[in-house]
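Q: Given only this backbone (238 positions), what sequence would you predict?
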């Protein structure tokens, strides 16, 4: 017999979903930070690096964006699981396989996927910066680190924010795929709860509400960031 919402919450599945939501946010944040690092460095190399570096970055973005996200997760998981198991046996660390390894796979997968899209986001942001500002800064004696800190980076992140918002939202949803390799994030918690309570609709609706709330909060943060870091930019563009 299906459990009611009250029974589901009293049995602790509400707490389980909240913990899963916390893990979802953690994996997303760590993965997107890795992806941003890949995106910025990749965009810099693609915009003005050696031809070999440009070719490698282009190959990386083409491969990752052409392969389904689930397949990337499977390749990372099954390509490293034996080595991770051997390491766990050598260290006599059982939690490595049950807890740490799925988290690392999730962060790496989200980072590689989001990084492939972030490269193009930041490449467009680099191109949007007026080269005349950089030339003027150098003309008045600014060093390269000063130009980077005072002119390039502030505008780079502001121009990249709309695209980075889309990358973040996609990364947030991609974390649901990590549940297939054993990580108990929000989607996995909903699957376990639906099997235990025989109330899949209720559990999946609760998970959907939590995903929605995370997305709304994320959107609000990006809107605030665009307004905050864009002060003075609107007037400069006009």
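A: Predicted residues:
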């Amino acid at each position: 017999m299906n459990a009611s919402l009250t029974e589901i919450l009293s049995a602790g599945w509400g707490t389980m979903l909240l913990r899963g939501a916390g893990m979802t946010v953690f994996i997303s944040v760590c993965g997107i930070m890795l992806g941003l690092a890949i995106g910025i460095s990749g965009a810099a190399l693609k915009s003005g690096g050696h031809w070999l570096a440009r070719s490698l970055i282009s190959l990386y973005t083409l491969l990752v964006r052409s392969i389904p996200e689930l397949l990337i997760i499977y390749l990372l998981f099954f390509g490293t699981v034996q080595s991770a198991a051997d390491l766990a046996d050598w260290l006599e660390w059982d939690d490595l396989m049950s807890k740490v390894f799925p988290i690392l796979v999730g962060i790496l997968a989200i980072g590689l996927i989001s990084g492939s899209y972030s490269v193009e986001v930041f490449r467009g942001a680099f191109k949007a910066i007026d080269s005349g500002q950089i030339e003027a800064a150098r003309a008045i004696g600014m060093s390269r680190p000063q130009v980077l800190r005072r002119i390039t980076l502030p505008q780079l992140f502001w121009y990249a924010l709309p695209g980075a918002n889309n990358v973040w939202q996609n990364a947030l949803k991609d974390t649901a795929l990590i549940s297939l390799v054993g990580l108990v994030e929000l989607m996995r918690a909903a699957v376990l709860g639906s099997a235990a309570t025989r109330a899949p609709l209720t559990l999946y609706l609760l998970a959907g509400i939590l995903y929605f709330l995370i997305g709304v909060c994320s959107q609000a943060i990006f809107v605030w960031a665009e307004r905050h870091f864009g002060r003075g930019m609107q007037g400069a563009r006009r």
